[in-house]
Amino acid sequence: MRKLLLIGLLLLSGCSSKVKKEDLYRVNVNGIDVTVGYDSSLDEGIKVEEVNYYTDEKENTYLSDLEFYLSDVSDYVSLDGYDLRNGIKNTCEHFKGELIEKNGTACLISKVVKNRENYVVIYGDLLDDNTDRVDRIEIHYNYAND
Description:
Layout: H1 2-15, E1 26-29, E2 32-35, E3 50-55, E4 61-69, H2 70-73, E5 77-79, E6 82-83, H3 88-94, E7 98-101, E8 105-113, E9 116-124, E10 134-141
Antiparallel strand pairs: 1-2, 1-5, 3-4, 4-10, 5-6, 7-8, 8-9, 9-10
Protein backbone atom coordinates (compact mmCIF):
# COMPACT_ATOMS: atom_id res chain seq x y z
CA MET A 1 0.00 0.00 0.00
CA ARG A 2 2.86 2.38 0.86
CA LYS A 3 4.53 1.68 -2.47
CA LEU A 4 1.35 2.58 -4.34
CA LEU A 5 1.01 5.79 -2.35
CA LEU A 6 4.65 6.69 -3.00
CA ILE A 7 4.30 5.98 -6.73
CA GLY A 8 1.13 8.07 -6.85
CA LEU A 9 2.85 11.00 -5.15
CA LEU A 10 5.81 10.78 -7.52
CA LEU A 11 3.52 10.74 -10.53
CA LEU A 12 1.55 13.72 -9.24
CA SER A 13 4.68 15.74 -8.52
CA GLY A 14 6.08 14.94 -11.97
CA CYS A 15 2.87 15.93 -13.73
CA SER A 16 2.49 19.16 -11.82
CA SER A 17 5.90 20.55 -12.83
CA LYS A 18 4.70 21.69 -16.27
CA VAL A 19 3.29 25.20 -16.45
CA LYS A 20 -0.39 25.37 -17.36
CA LYS A 21 -1.38 27.86 -20.04
CA GLU A 22 -4.34 29.13 -18.02
CA ASP A 23 -2.05 30.07 -15.12
CA LEU A 24 -0.04 32.54 -17.21
CA TYR A 25 -0.94 35.98 -18.57
CA ARG A 26 -2.45 35.68 -22.04
CA VAL A 27 -2.51 38.53 -24.52
CA ASN A 28 -4.92 38.57 -27.47
CA VAL A 29 -4.10 40.65 -30.53
CA ASN A 30 -6.82 40.72 -33.21
CA GLY A 31 -8.06 37.30 -32.18
CA ILE A 32 -4.60 35.73 -31.89
CA ASP A 33 -3.74 34.45 -28.40
CA VAL A 34 -0.15 34.53 -27.18
CA THR A 35 0.96 33.09 -23.84
CA VAL A 36 4.52 33.92 -22.85
CA GLY A 37 5.98 31.03 -20.85
CA TYR A 38 3.85 28.45 -22.64
CA ASP A 39 3.72 29.05 -26.41
CA SER A 40 6.68 27.96 -28.48
CA SER A 41 6.21 30.32 -31.42
CA LEU A 42 4.69 33.63 -32.38
CA ASP A 43 2.05 34.09 -35.07
CA GLU A 44 3.40 36.05 -38.04
CA GLY A 45 0.35 38.33 -37.83
CA ILE A 46 1.78 40.01 -34.73
CA LYS A 47 4.50 42.60 -35.29
CA VAL A 48 6.73 42.75 -32.23
CA GLU A 49 9.48 45.08 -31.11
CA GLU A 50 11.37 42.33 -29.30
CA VAL A 51 10.89 38.62 -28.64
CA ASN A 52 13.07 36.17 -26.69
CA TYR A 53 12.89 32.41 -26.31
CA TYR A 54 13.98 29.93 -23.67
CA THR A 55 15.08 26.37 -24.47
CA ASP A 56 14.89 23.83 -21.67
CA GLU A 57 17.08 20.77 -21.10
CA LYS A 58 14.76 18.65 -23.27
CA GLU A 59 15.20 21.10 -26.19
CA ASN A 60 11.63 22.45 -25.83
CA THR A 61 11.42 26.13 -26.76
CA TYR A 62 9.08 28.66 -25.14
CA LEU A 63 8.48 32.37 -25.46
CA SER A 64 10.13 34.06 -22.48
CA ASP A 65 9.79 37.78 -23.32
CA LEU A 66 7.60 39.74 -25.67
CA GLU A 67 7.42 43.48 -26.30
CA PHE A 68 5.20 45.31 -28.77
CA TYR A 69 3.61 48.66 -29.51
CA LEU A 70 -0.14 48.80 -29.91
CA SER A 71 0.26 51.09 -32.92
CA ASP A 72 2.19 48.29 -34.67
CA VAL A 73 -0.30 45.49 -34.05
CA SER A 74 -3.85 46.76 -33.87
CA ASP A 75 -6.27 48.85 -31.93
CA TYR A 76 -7.69 45.78 -30.14
CA VAL A 77 -5.51 44.09 -27.57
CA SER A 78 -6.67 42.31 -24.43
CA LEU A 79 -4.92 40.83 -21.43
CA ASP A 80 -6.66 37.76 -20.02
CA GLY A 81 -9.80 38.93 -21.84
CA TYR A 82 -9.67 42.48 -20.43
CA ASP A 83 -9.71 45.15 -23.18
CA LEU A 84 -6.61 47.35 -22.84
CA ARG A 85 -8.39 50.24 -24.54
CA ASN A 86 -9.85 50.87 -21.06
CA GLY A 87 -6.59 52.64 -20.22
CA ILE A 88 -3.62 52.02 -17.99
CA LYS A 89 -5.23 53.13 -14.73
CA ASN A 90 -8.38 51.00 -15.16
CA THR A 91 -6.31 48.01 -16.30
CA CYS A 92 -3.98 48.39 -13.34
CA GLU A 93 -6.93 48.58 -10.95
CA HIS A 94 -8.61 45.57 -12.59
CA PHE A 95 -5.50 43.39 -12.17
CA LYS A 96 -4.56 44.92 -8.80
CA GLY A 97 -1.23 46.03 -10.26
CA GLU A 98 1.21 48.70 -9.20
CA LEU A 99 0.54 52.06 -10.90
CA ILE A 100 3.67 54.14 -11.56
CA GLU A 101 3.31 57.81 -12.48
CA LYS A 102 6.82 59.18 -12.95
CA ASN A 103 7.69 60.75 -16.29
CA GLY A 104 4.59 59.10 -17.73
CA THR A 105 2.23 56.36 -16.69
CA ALA A 106 2.97 52.65 -16.39
CA CYS A 107 1.52 49.64 -14.61
CA LEU A 108 3.27 46.53 -13.32
CA ILE A 109 1.07 43.43 -13.07
CA SER A 110 2.69 40.29 -11.72
CA LYS A 111 2.14 36.86 -10.22
CA VAL A 112 4.23 33.83 -9.37
CA VAL A 113 3.67 30.69 -11.45
CA LYS A 114 5.64 27.52 -10.60
CA ASN A 115 8.09 29.54 -8.47
CA ARG A 116 8.83 31.90 -11.37
CA GLU A 117 7.66 35.45 -11.89
CA ASN A 118 5.18 36.11 -14.69
CA TYR A 119 4.74 39.83 -15.20
CA VAL A 120 3.32 42.40 -17.58
CA VAL A 121 4.36 46.04 -17.85
CA ILE A 122 1.97 48.39 -19.62
CA TYR A 123 3.28 51.81 -20.67
CA GLY A 124 1.68 55.03 -21.81
CA ASP A 125 3.23 57.34 -24.39
CA LEU A 126 5.12 60.26 -22.83
CA LEU A 127 4.44 62.45 -25.84
CA ASP A 128 0.69 61.77 -25.98
CA ASP A 129 -1.68 64.24 -24.32
CA ASN A 130 -3.53 61.20 -22.94
CA THR A 131 -0.85 59.44 -20.88
CA ASP A 132 -3.44 56.87 -19.76
CA ARG A 133 -3.65 55.39 -23.27
CA VAL A 134 -1.74 52.11 -23.57
CA ASP A 135 1.19 52.50 -25.95
CA ARG A 136 3.56 49.61 -25.27
CA ILE A 137 3.31 46.22 -23.57
CA GLU A 138 6.01 43.91 -22.22
CA ILE A 139 5.21 40.36 -21.07
CA HIS A 140 7.81 38.22 -19.29
CA TYR A 141 8.09 34.77 -17.78
CA ASN A 142 11.28 34.50 -15.74
CA TYR A 143 13.19 31.28 -16.49
CA ALA A 144 16.18 32.49 -14.43
CA ASN A 145 15.52 29.79 -11.80
CA ASP A 146 16.62 27.06 -14.22
